[in-house]
Amino acid sequence: MGSVPSDTLSLSEDTGIAIPEPTQTLHQILIHSARQHPEKTALVSCHQPRSLLPSQGFAKNTESRDYLRWSYAHLEKASGLLASYFIQSGVGKGDAVVVITYSCAEWALCFWAAARLGCPFVPINPAIVARANEIQHVLSALGRIGALVVNDDSIVKLLSGHAPAEIRKSSTNLILGGVGMIGWTAFEDTLSTPGLSGPPMAKQSMDDTVLIVLTSGTTALPKGCPHTNKTVASMCARHKIMYSLDETRVSCNHMPLFHLAGVMESLWAWAHGGTVVYPNHSFDARATLDAIDREKCTDMCLVPSMLRAMIDHPALSSGNTKSLGLIKLAANDVLGSDARACSEILQARLVTNCFGMTETSGMTEIFAWKDGICKDFEPFPVGRMAAGAKARICTPGSRTLVERGVIGELHQGGMTVTDRYIGGGEDDSSFYTDPAGSWHISGDRAVMSQTGEISVLGRYKDIINRAGENISPSVMERVLNAIQGVNSSQVVGVPDEVAGEVPVAVIKLNKDSMTPKNVFYDRILKELGVIFSLDKVLYLKELGAEDWPTTATGKVRKVDVRRMVIKHLRHESQSSTRMAARESTEAALTRIWARFSGVPEQQISSTMSLEGMVDSVTIMRFRSQVKKELGKTFSLEELNQNPTIAKQAVILDRQQENLSRGNEASSQPVREGPPQLSDIVHSRGKQDVFDEIRRDTENQLQTIGLSWDEDVEEVLPMYDYVVAWRVITGSISFRIVFKCFNTTTEQLRSAMETVLPRHGMLRTILVYSASAGFSWAMIRSSKHWFDLSIVDGGNLKNPEDLLSIDMRSPELNNSKPLPLFYIKLYFVEATQSAGFVVYGDYSTFDAHSVLSLFVEDLRDVLENQTATLAPRPQYSLFANAYYNYRTSIPAQLMVDYHTSRFAGLSNRPPAFWPKETFQSVNAPPERSADQLLLEGNIAPGLTGLTKHIPIDMRNNVYLKMHKIPHSVAIKAAIAIYNTQQTGHPYAFFSNLQMCRSYPFLPSEITSRLPDIMDMPGATLEGSFEEIHLPPSEPLCTFLPRLHAQQNELTAHAQYPSLRMLELVDPADREFMTQASRRQAINYNPVVKQDEDAKVQNMQFAGSANLSIIWWCGMVDAETVQIRVTWCDEVFGMGDAERAVEGFERNLKWIVEGGNWERGVGECGI
């Protein structure tokens, strides 16, 4: 292996043995072989007649085969004549020779001719011609086209319709296998054109582009990877060193010739005087087995699906594959059983696993089987660095090396790496050059072992985030592909309202295979565990397809598979709901449990305990699906106490009457006229208080043309937390931006007018009365109200313009008496679709209420105009319960807990950070500071600073052992940063939590109430938190102590804070108030958005009247997201950047090991 300095051996960087700087061009390499071995067979095409192109005076095919065999002399002469024809037709050096064919001898002639002329050779997958946007993009991006060669007239017809301008700019257009058409010449006529002779070789440099192979990932338009004489010659030199290639080798090349592997399998043989065999026009297991037997092939490249098709084929038993000396497995999902099958079944003496990309060629190799010794890895690494290759594994989005054993993003370097794309737009950012050479950032998740083996774990963009757990589809696909009868599989993530995303497997079976679905569920659970449990298994045929949708280079388009799955599941969900109406409760529950557990229905009995079969996320998803299909629900406590289907069915059946009453209570109000004395709980039955509330509400309404009698639906008491911490009344504090797809502003407005009647808290204004305090007045849905709360903002050019809309409108600076939830609609010209911006007061909603419930309803209406939306629970159930029971014994116990925590707080050192609060800045008296910032363009503190930090907390032994959740490690990092800023061993925060439970009520009552998770409105609570960090306390005792403290706070999160503030000593109250105003922590999981959804959130900006807020969450199990927002009058961008950097440094110190016995005061030293 190459040399790596000893002091960097712990880092994920490695280099293969050096190869000499190449000096021969591609054409010189080919000509050298032709001159050295003129009579040796260069090409065998088993599916083409031996008489192909017979009239050119070549030596006759004397071998007793009925298919094509050409010598090197034949291939050189014929390609020279074709090059001469190209010149006569106007093709010049640098013009692209585009070949849209399958594997055939004509492809080889074009390859050799293009090399002779110094023309870039561009092989293209015939399948993409049917996709107009792709073929147009490719041909347009190539620039000058000298020759266009196609397989047959069907391709001509498609090209004529999809890319007529590109056809016209080609100097010559050729068609294989038949007579010419208008504008097209039959290929076989070209070599008999009068006056042809072998043209002189074009003068070329090593930096000239000679090969352009398309790549497109799995989502974007195809883009070309331009390879030069230097990169191609380096690939040849590498292969010779790795496999000792010479003229005795016979390569069975069934790889697609529009893929770099197919091109290079031909070239590697020709470069060393070997023979290339094309078994068929495309891969066919029988044709490959026959070719190996008849031609005594020695070398072959395989991907696992090809291997499985070959070893399952009946022709294998009658054939002979003993000639195989080398099989190169080329994939990142190779199994030990694959390598063993190559050796034991196909009888290859040497089996390797290689990995590379179109941008880089094969960069790694591992000898999987040599001389009967198997390198028994599961899954197989892709190997160590090949000759002349380099690799790094870096923190995603950076060039910072990670340590060996740590997952990161794979960077590949060396002389075979191209340096740009053709037609790639901005994608060139994945290439860079540094003193070590040229590099390509692959986008692959990878890990390097201590001995240098690299394992590729799948694409970053394909990762499935199931409730914060990072699930790699490629890991699951390896397991599924190893099951007998499977040709190939794809695992995709589909949206789920509880887990964010869940994995669905799509299986393509071998012909005649009947593998049942329960085998796939069972194998995944057995080998990978419950976190990886499949939500669904589908056969590819169930999606109406015989084969995978592919890109221009034959890669499976996962994004298209995902769309197919989502469409299928939506249809299936509608069928399930109809089925549920006809089933017994037990049958429906059995069917739903079978779906989520992966256990076949016939194996689930009504008395079987489901405990231990599923995790908490699956239980939540089950509960959500039951509600969706049956219109009934469980509490989590009921599920835990009743783990069998029989008991669960009894609960639901008994619930029917109560549920009906609950639905009546939760549906939209039917009261005639405005609220009366008995309807407004905080009037306390006093007529004078009621009259005061009514009078203050009417005063607000009159200014906007509304009245008490006609327009007021409810008047609800504002609960303690939003009153206690409301420094300035009426402040519009949040601004949320959404973009839509395939939606007009008229459709969007209509959808909102359908949805808003279900979301009463989004139809409110703020009212203050001296006797009753703050109230929300909920306004009835009406045209007048919708005109006030939904306004047309006009047109914008691009969706990004939504992020920077000027908010100078004076009415937005004061929400009284305007709506507390105010919407502006925009038409975006670039997408020909709508977008909208919400301005909301934080007292009326929480993140779940808007980003989940409101957006979910809006999507349902936009995607199905005739959708009937089930009623949502009224917020009055929560608000009135809070007010009525805030003096109960359970509430008093909560107050006692918090007041005891604050006793003597003022004796602590004033370790406040940041030093200032926004209340201390000079702002106009009629406005809050955050309103001042919202006026005009958004200040940076409102949108905030976000960073993704790669850090693997899932595999941390200490966190696992002590069951320390990610949120506690994150809070610890923030607390330590506070002490580093103040020099005191204390950190003070507001701890923000969404409390989705009915306050101060026993479970016997709450279990009868509608599910509060479906209730629109605010449930946010904030608890003051003091964290003591003695510098000498070891991390190993600090984290469990902090975890226990967090559990206590969570158990007491819902409490009447106004009552607590009355009882706390004034000095302690002032201390707590000053500390709480400075910073807060809000921990929430980061959920991926469905990229196919019609409504997508783009931005959440705002201020909650605090100097800084830490918004924390896990993108997946290996990535923390930290976002800080701040008051620009107190904090600056530089301060925020330092805070995020300090947080990251502290978190890594906590998580990445070696510090468990060290004092927390040593962090950062």
TrEMBL record:
<dbReference type="InterPro" id="IPR023213">
    <property type="entry name" value="CAT-like_dom_sf"/>
</dbReference>
<keyword id="KW-0436">Ligase</keyword>
<comment type="similarity">
    <text>Belongs to the ATP-dependent AMP-binding enzyme family.</text>
</comment>
<keyword id="KW-0596">Phosphopantetheine</keyword>
<feature type="region of interest" description="Disordered">
    <location>
        <begin position="657"/>
        <end position="678"/>
    </location>
</feature>
<keyword id="KW-0597">Phosphoprotein</keyword>
<feature type="domain" description="Carrier">
    <location>
        <begin position="580"/>
        <end position="656"/>
    </location>
</feature>
<feature type="compositionally biased region" description="Polar residues">
    <location>
        <begin position="657"/>
        <end position="669"/>
    </location>
</feature>
<dbReference type="InterPro" id="IPR000873">
    <property type="entry name" value="AMP-dep_synth/lig_dom"/>
</dbReference>
<dbReference type="InterPro" id="IPR042099">
    <property type="entry name" value="ANL_N_sf"/>
</dbReference>
<dbReference type="Pfam" id="PF13193">
    <property type="entry name" value="AMP-binding_C"/>
</dbReference>
<dbReference type="Pfam" id="PF00501">
    <property type="entry name" value="AMP-binding"/>
</dbReference>
<dbReference type="GO" id="GO:0031956">
    <property type="term" value="F:medium-chain fatty acid-CoA ligase activity"/>
</dbReference>
<dbReference type="InterPro" id="IPR025110">
    <property type="entry name" value="AMP-bd_C"/>
</dbReference>
<protein>
    <recommendedName>
        <fullName>Carrier domain-containing protein</fullName>
    </recommendedName>
</protein>
<dbReference type="InterPro" id="IPR045851">
    <property type="entry name" value="AMP-bd_C_sf"/>
</dbReference>
<dbReference type="InterPro" id="IPR036736">
    <property type="entry name" value="ACP-like_sf"/>
</dbReference>
<dbReference type="Pfam" id="PF00550">
    <property type="entry name" value="PP-binding"/>
</dbReference>
<dbReference type="InterPro" id="IPR009081">
    <property type="entry name" value="PP-bd_ACP"/>
</dbReference>
<dbReference type="GO" id="GO:0006631">
    <property type="term" value="P:fatty acid metabolic process"/>
</dbReference>
